[in-house]
Amino acid sequence: MRNLLMGEEIKLTSINQQDVLELQKWFTDVAFMRYYDIVSAIPKNLEEVQESLSEVRKSNTAYIFAIKNLKQEEFIGVTGFEDISWTNGTAIIYIGIGGEKHRGKGYGMEALKLTMEFGFQELNFHKIQLTVLQYNEPAIKLYEKLGFKREGVYREFIHRDGIRYDMYLYGILRPEWEAFTI
């Protein structure tokens, strides 16, 4: 039986205590936060990060994974699901590659493929959704490459640096994913 959480370059695993310190650094990096989340890029201290992780771990509508490269076992990002609707088989997927040195190396694509596979095969989702801000062009290209379809636009959703940006809603259905992965 194949390990659903293991890829060629990375693996998805739990976040351990030493990872939390690195995660907290990312949550003080304004550039990271402006691509990772739609909330204001307010730095989080260690206790706030630990509390957020604790809430996810206690939840039955969210999962979080650490993304680690296989060679050094280095913590390079997070991925997971939130707002899981078990009765409808839907969830929102998310990803964040923390350190800039790890971006643009294909880790995001592999991590999302593994997360999607876990969602469709292990958690039996019918649909996986995500939101992305208009200015995050690399992420938009990645999502479309993975088979996500733009389903809607939240017009002028967010205000950053004196400019209003749209937020796009993307989704992929299980049959679309199955056809895409063959």
What does this structure look like?
It is a single chain. The protein is of the alpha+beta class. 35% of the residues lie in helices and 33% in strands. The chain contains 6 helices and 7 strands. Strands 1-2-3-4-5-7-6 form a 7-stranded mixed sheet, sandwiched between helices. A hairpin with a 4-residue loop joins strand 3 and strand 4. The longest helix has 16 residues. It is globular and about 40 Å long. 26% of the residues are buried. The model has no long low-confidence stretch (mean pLDDT 91).
Helix and strand arrangement:
Blueprint: E1 10-13, H1 17-26, H2 30-36, H3 46-58, E2 63-69, E3 75-85, E4 90-97, H4 107-122, E5 127-133, H5 137-145, E6 149-160, E7 163-173, H6 174-181
Parallel strand pairs: 4-5
Antiparallel strand pairs: 1-2, 2-3, 3-4, 5-7, 6-7
Q: Key terms for this structure?
A:
182 residues, alpha+beta, globular
Short description:
This protein has 182 residues and is α+β, with helices and mostly antiparallel strands. It contains six helices and seven strands; from the N terminus they run βαααβββαβαββα. The chain starts with 9 loop residues before the first strand and ends with a helix.
